[in-house]
Amino acid sequence: MSIDPHADEPIRTAGAPPQAAEAAVVLLHGRGDSPEGILRLVDDVYRRGVLYVAPAAAGRVWYPGGFAEPVTERREAFVESALGQVERALALAAETGIAPDRTVLAGFSQGAAVAAEYATRRPERFGGLGLLAGGLLGPTDALDPRDGSLAGTPAFLGVGDEDPYVGPAHVAATADVLRAMGAEVRAETYPDLGHAVGDGEIAGLNDLVGGVAPE
C-alpha cells in the first residue's frame, strides 16, 4: 500500500538553538495531541544545550488501531510513514552535528509505540529510549526481538497499573524485547495511574536526558 500520510507534516523545535546544541531529544506525541502539546514536557526535562525536536502526525494520529492488535497492511503503511517522520527528526539533529548516541528518542502512547518500532527496526546505539505509556505494536504474546543491536542504549519504560490502553504485561513484553537486543532497560509500573504521564515517568525521562546532557 503506497501511502505516506505524515510526509508533509511539520517538525517543531524548542530548547537550544541548533547551532548551540550538544544533544537532542526527539519527542513523539500521542493520539489526539500535537508537537506543541508534547513539547510541554520540556519544562520538566530541560537541560542547557539540548535541542528538543517534535514531529507532527497527520490528523494527530500516527496509525490506526490499538497497541496489541494484529498487524495489517494498512496500519503498517501508516507506521512506515511515521518512521519516516522520526528519520527526518533525527536528520535535523544530525545536521547540527548531534550523533544518535547523543540523542534520546521518546514518546507518549502512540508516540511511544512509534519510538519503540523505530528503535527496534533501525537499531543502533541511541543516547536513550523513553517509552511512556506505550510499547511495541502487535499482540503481546507475539513480540519478538528483531535483527540488530541496541547495545549500550539506556531505555526507560513507564506505565500505570490502571492504563486501559496499554497494560503492564504489554510493556513488560516490550522491555523483554529491548533487553534481548542489548538495551539497558529500566521498566516501572506505577500504582493508581491511568493512561497519563505521571511524576515517576517524568523522572525516568529526566534521567535519560541527563545521560546525554549532564548538568
Automatic annotation (TrEMBL):
Keywords of this entry: Hydrolase
Keyword Aminoacyl-tRNA synthetase: no
Gene Ontology molecular function terms on file: hydrolase activity
InterPro entries: AB_hydrolase_fold, LYPA1-2/EST-like, PLipase/COase/thioEstase
Phospholipase/carboxylesterase/thioesterase domain location: 17-198
Family membership noted in the UniProt record: Belongs to the AB hydrolase superfamily. AB hydrolase 2 family.
Protein name: Alpha/beta hydrolase
Organism: Halosegnis marinus
